[in-house]
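W.,

You were right to be curious about this one. When I first looked at the sequence I had no strong expectations either way, so I just let the prediction run and decided to look at it fresh. Below is the sequence, 344 residues in total, followed by the output.
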Amino acid sequence: MPVRVLIVDDSAFFRRRLTEILSLDPLIQVVGNASNGREAVDQVLALQPDVVTMDVAMPIMDGISAVREIMHRRPTPIFMFSSVTTGGAKATLDSLEAGAMDFMPKRFEDISSDREQVFNELRQRVVILGTRGVRTFRKPLAPLPCAPPQWSPTRPRRTLRLVMIGSSTGGPVALQEILTRLPKAFPLPILLIQHMPGTFTSAFAARLNQICQIEVREAEDGDLLTKGVALLAPGGKQMILDDRGIRVLIRESEPGLSYKPCVDLAFSSAAKALPGQVLALVLTGMGADGREGARALKQGGSTVWAQNEATCVVYGMPMAVVEAGLADQVLPISDLGPALVAGV
């Protein structure tokens, strides 16, 4: 059966355009539309769609409020569309925290100049969300009462110099869950590679910095790796390690790379600079970005963990690592933060 989609936007033109784009996929059926959040809630209850596409800024009831009510009354996978302004980025992050599962800028050209590639990706993401169903996760503020899992590195702990985390769809909430578990005195630097447009990464880093004990900021070219500091790769660019493994380099993306930033590229640079000294985590996300980088890390003696299927919004990137036999541990998202604390 096709994935049944409800389109919510106050612009009739955008509703029609999105209907045209999605309807080109035989696996998608647009079953209704709404022009504001209140209509969206009513339509979700009446039509029971598999996926809702949701605008952020709307009259009567905004998208964030609608997400909260839908997730309370009839949890449904929600795909957000927003502007690329700073306010739009913050609102999108609020909607993800409220329960939305994925997002995309409304101006498709802000993602790629190849519109057909963007449309194909959009349709694929909608189908996956509709097939996968709701995967909600709420960040507990207190540490888990149970003991964290045993940490089993392939190298002695004393050689560990860097933690790297790669993620995509569902990653913002997953990263928040992990990083809020880390103490201010966390003894290692952290590099974060999250698939996200460049207009969103600075707002995301600022949000993480507000709620985490460790420092989190968007990486800049030449930033030194510093204990207890997490550097987020800027969207639209590539973040790699220098040859000595002491600072990050921010570069324009080369033609042909689908992901900006790319987990494979970041992991592979660390495999060369710090062989056997990296702990890499691969979290929720579509596709297989991170698999080849994880392979390079493993060949050098480093350690790779993957998020388990049950707690992923999309079990793509972690699955690729697990099925390739590259994961030393496969853990639920709630265990990854405590495991990091126990292991370093």
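Here's what jumped out at me. DSSP finds eleven helices and 14 strands in the chain. And, maybe more interesting for your project: The chain has a mean pLDDT of 90.

Coffee later to discuss?

I.
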